[in-house]
Amino acid sequence: MSLLWQARFFTTANHLRDLPNTQVPEIAFAGRSNAGKSTAINVLCNQKKLAFASKTPGRTQHINYFSLGGAHVGQHRKDEAKVDEIRALLVDLPGYGYAEVSGSAKQHWQELLGDYVQKREQLAALVLIIDSRRPFTALDIQMLEWFAPTGKPIHCILTKADKLNRNDAANALRLARSILSSYVDEEGKPFPFTAQLFSALKRTGLEEANDRIIELLGLSELQDAGAQDHSDEKSEK
Ligand SMILES: Nc1nc2c(ncn2[C@@H]2O[C@H](COP(=O)(O)OP(=O)(O)O)[C@@H](O)[C@H]2O)c(=O)[nH]1
Ligand SMILES: [Mg+2]
Description:
Largest sheet: 7 strands, mixed
Helix content: 25-40%
Order of helices and strands: EEHEHEHEHEHEHH
Number of helices: 7
Number of strands: 7
CATH superfamily: P-loop containing nucleotide triphosphate hydrolases
Strand order of the largest sheet: 1-3-4-2-5-6-7
Bound molecules: guanosine-5'-diphosphate, magnesium ion
Mean pLDDT: 87
């Protein structure tokens, strides 16, 4: 059982000033509308409706938080004792690139996302959700360039790999990796950027994505301890 399966709705914010005053590490999921972000979050968390898998892209313009640990906290988040039990947060960012979003909504989005990824100290890493058939649109590059200067890791999940044949999938991954490795810091060192193929439909790449997210949240030890408890339970039976 993955720690991600504990994910519970925590809070939602439409302005930076409304972000939760939490200290635990958080990992944010960003991506174009319709790239498969909600589906990926739901599959990774083993829950059908955690992140609303919308058929009408662009409608979720808020930043949604899910908590890991202190699983019973749920919406009673004003109870500080229980908030203390939270180990990490998953952050579902508004999808971008939806054509019908109006000028002012677009600007709100740019300010919200740009400021969030550049300034949020608790943000440990970014998961960039990209449709493997459309790798790195201009707005994906924009996200990358906002975030790269922080020096924090990006893990790029290329979704809907089931829609590509093996060859095209391998090419998409190669292209993604070459774009990611083209970013270097002032000393010419590459940024900690990784990429993988993923299919929610075929459930491929699930373990790789799960392990990377747990690692980026600094929860590997906790996850391993949990797995250990679990195997002890089994062996006692
Ligand atoms: N074939 C296939 N379809 C997917 C996959 N992931 C998501 N989809 C579909 O892509 C559409 C958009 O997915 P959604 O998760 O709502 O995208 P979001 O806007 O990025 O949150 C939906 O119709 C999903 O069923 C996948 O891995 N394979
Ligand atoms: Mg969505």
